[in-house]
Design a protein that fits this description.
Blueprint: H1 8-12, E1 22-23, E2 33-35, E3 40-43, H2 51-59, E4 64-67, H3 71-76, E5 87-90, H4 102-109, H5 116-133, H6 135-146, E6 153-156, H7 163-174, H8 179-194, H9 197-208, H10 216-222, H11 227-241, H12 244-250, H13 255-265, E7 266-268
Parallel strand pairs: 3-6, 4-5, 4-6
Antiparallel strand pairs: 1-3, 2-7
Helix pairs in contact: 5-10, 5-11, 6-7, 6-13, 7-8, 11-12
């Protein structure tokens, strides 16, 4: 399968229990250029896989995993399915991102005043914090890709749409993917999760137990993606740093590292694509 035909839907079907696992390959990266398939995957947390699905995960030949969850989340759901040779970079505690942490959702969803509007506002606020809270992970990812890892890398958090959504979106922006393509890839996470209605029902019960009826609208908002959220993160970058380029410079990401990551991820479209 060539890069340009490697859709998110096709990638997500690799492992049924991970509907949000996908290859970012195939996204446009400027005129006549495209993101290579098989270099970066994005996902939700790796949990409850069958033996066959664990084998499928191993077949991706991952070399490194960037786990964006906090220490409490990693303790609650440790990696159980990664081959032993895979290196894992775990995020240190830092930055209040409570609205995107599963361990914080239960308390909020049980609050009667936490309605759909409050959930939307909480996510916008959290996305505004992400450039600071996740800047170190973004810098490490770009630098790691510039070093040309031996195999594909995987970026994930709990659900795979918020923290992973921002970090992958910023990575894509750093290598020249157009804003509209970045937004569409980001929004795809909500669509992929929404299609798995039976799985989501089971998943919700495992994580949260029985939620009160009033929590349904807020839960729906928290499980979805919205352009407002990602825009809030990039608007915060512009307000604080003036530009995305200056933001990366503040993270100590050099032009040479950006070029190295781009060379690793981006290729020229061939006439037979």
């Amino acid at each position: 399968m060539n890069d340009s035909s490697h859709s998110a839907q096709q990638a997500s079907s690799l492992i049924a229990s991970l509907p949000n696992l996908r290859d970012i390959g195939g996204l446009p990266a400027g005129t006549g250029r495209v993101i290579r398939a098989g270099r970066v995957y994005r996902s939700q947390m790796l949990r409850a896989l069958s033996a066959d699905e664990s084998a499928r995960l191993a077949a991706l030949n991952l070399s490194q995993v960037y786990d964006l969850r906090g220490p409490d989340e990693r303790e609650a759901t440790p990696h159980e399915h990664l081959p032993g040779h895979v290196s894992v970079r775990a995020r240190d505690a830092g930055g209040d991102l409570s609205a995107v942490k599963i361990t914080q959702w239960r308390d909020r969803l049980n609050q009667p005043e936490f309605d759909a509007a409050a959930a939307h506002a909480a996510l916008v606020d959290n996305y505004q914090r992400m450039p600071v809270a996740l800047g170190g992970e973004l810098a490490a990812l770009i630098k790691g890709l510039a070093d040309r890892p031996a195999g594909p890398v995987l970026v994930h958090c709990s659900i795979g749409k918020d923290r992973t959504g921002f970090v992958v979106a910023a990575l894509l922006r750093s290598v020249g993917v157009p804003p509209q393509a970045i937004l569409q890839d980001y929004l795809c996470s909500g669509a992929l999760l929404a299609r798995q209605t039976v799985m989501l029902r089971q998943y919700r019960h495992q994580l949260f137990g029985d939620l009160p009826a009033h929590a349904e609208p807020a839960f729906g908002v928290m499980l979805d993606t919205h352009a407002d959220y990602l825009n809030a993160a990039f608007d915060a970058i512009d307000r604080t740093h003036g530009s995305f380029d200056d933001y990366l410079a503040a993270l100590d990401v050099s032009d040479a590292e950006r070029t190295g990551a781009r060379d690793h991820l981006v290729r020229t479209i061939r006439s037979d694509d």
